[in-house]
């Protein structure tokens, strides 16, 4: 794999860390800024909305730039956003800084995945995208726990200073090793929007939303599930999250290779595995060892779908690769919010934490149905993509 893919992975690591580490620092942020924990929690929501809403606008703003220059500009926005987080004097400024940081997220992953796929032969595109997204999974394995520990010891602002430095390193790496592809076609933004009309593309994006909702329905509430149902200590929860992160990393690598082999079959198989693992978690969650095994398998199945989903939308929107890849990242974040809402709805209606995995299984089945419909033999356009 080209060195440029490793730099893209480093960039993904920085972006993933800044997105998720805030969840581990909520108590410190709330205390320092004088807001409640739920109020601080809106910093997570603000970031997700910034990704979902800002992604297409940033794609349009960078549409006239060569992809290398677009990635450099987006990483510059990321660095500025994290710097603003580190020096934010109050809650309002921190929220604004989080939204600024989020603006680069969707467009960077969207354009970056197109660049990653262009660096390798056609039969290794999904593996290349998977390598880039490995940075995102490593953010969960290493970036979030280490960033949380640093923030707890040296203050939450120190974490954002550290991520700013990683962003600068990624910017230098992108500038030095990312090749400028002089043969790439100039982006016609009107033509890209015209390419969004196909039903297959919107089905693919809907599949991404349902997949992400199935994952985050559990992921959002995994800590209280482990603590209140399984009886895991707070320190044990940290180790469980590390185990989940390892599963996510393994799944990302496996999924990239499987998607290079058979894209549609990979998606269908992953969604079946995700539905089964989620359902099993309902019954294993009362016992430690079965719970840990189930969560590891669940995490592996979950991220095995990520590279396939990204390649899937580009296949259907090949005339607008930058825009559709960016929209797919927005779809992931819409699914994140949907999954958290569904899980919260289940709990608020008195069904309990053990019913959350069942709700996630239903969402995974809906993703499977969307995939089956997308690749139906009755639609020549979609069947051509399957072949």
UniProtKB/TrEMBL annotation:
Pfam families: MFS_1
PROSITE patterns: MFS (PS50850)
Gene3D superfamilies from the UniProt entry: MFS general substrate transporter like domains
InterPro entries hit by this protein: MFS (IPR011701), MFS_dom (IPR020846), MFS_Efflux_Transporters (IPR050189), MFS_trans_sf (IPR036259)
Record key words, sorted: Cell membrane, Membrane, Transmembrane, Transmembrane helix
Main location: membrane
TM stretches of this protein: 38-59, 71-93, 99-120, 127-147, 159-178, 199-224, 236-255, 267-289, 295-314, 326-347, 353-375
Locations listed in the record: Cell membrane
Name of this protein: MFS transporter
């Amino acid at each position: 794999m080209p060195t440029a893919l490793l730099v893209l992975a480093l960039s993904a690591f920085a972006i993933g860390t800044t997105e998720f580490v805030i969840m581990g620092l909520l108590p410190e942020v709330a205390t320092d800024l004088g807001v409640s924990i739920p109020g601080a929690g809106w910093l997570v929501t603000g970031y997700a909305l910034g990704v979902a809403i800002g992604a297409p606008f940033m794609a349009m703003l960078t549409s006239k730039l060569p992809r290398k220059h677009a990635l450099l500009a987006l990483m510059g926005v990321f660095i500025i956003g994290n710097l603003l987080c580190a020096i934010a004097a109050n809650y309002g400024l921190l929220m604004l800084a989080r939204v600024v940081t989020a603006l680069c997220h969707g467009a960077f992953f969207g354009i970056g995945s197109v660049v990653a796929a262009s660096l390798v032969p056609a039969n290794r595109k999904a593996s290349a995208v998977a390598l880039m997204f490995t940075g995102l999974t490593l953010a969960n394995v290493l970036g979030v726990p280490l960033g949380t520990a640093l923030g707890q010891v040296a203050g939450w602002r120190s974490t954002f200073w550290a991520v700013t430095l990683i962003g600068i390193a990624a910017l230098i790496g992108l500038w030095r090793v990312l090749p400028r592809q002089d043969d790439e076609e100039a982006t016609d933004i009107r033509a890209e929007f015209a390419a969004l009309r196909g039903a297959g593309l919107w089905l693919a994006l809907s599949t991404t939303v349902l997949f992400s909702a199935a994952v985050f329905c559990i992921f959002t509430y995994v800590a209280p599930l482990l603590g209140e149902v399984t009886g895991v200590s707070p320190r044990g929860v940290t180790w469980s999250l590390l185990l989940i992160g390892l599963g996510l990393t393994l799944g990302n690598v496996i999924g990239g290779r499987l998607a290079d082999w058979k894209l549609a079959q990979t998606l269908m198989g992953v969604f079946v595995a995700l539905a089964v693992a989620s359902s099993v978690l309902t019954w294993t969650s009362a016992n430690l060892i079965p719970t840990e095994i189930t969560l590891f398998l669940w995490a592996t199945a979950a991220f095995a779908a990520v590279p396939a989903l990204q390649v899937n939308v580009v296949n259907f929107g090949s005339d607008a690769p930058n825009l559709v890849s960016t929209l797919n990242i927005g779809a992931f974040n819409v699914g994140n919010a949907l999954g958290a809402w569904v899980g919260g709805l289940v709990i608020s209606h008195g069904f309990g934490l053990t019913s959350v995995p069942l709700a996630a299984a239903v969402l995974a089945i809906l993703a499977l149905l969307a995939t089956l419909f997308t690749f139906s033999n009755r639609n020549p356009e979609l069947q051509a993509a399957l072949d």
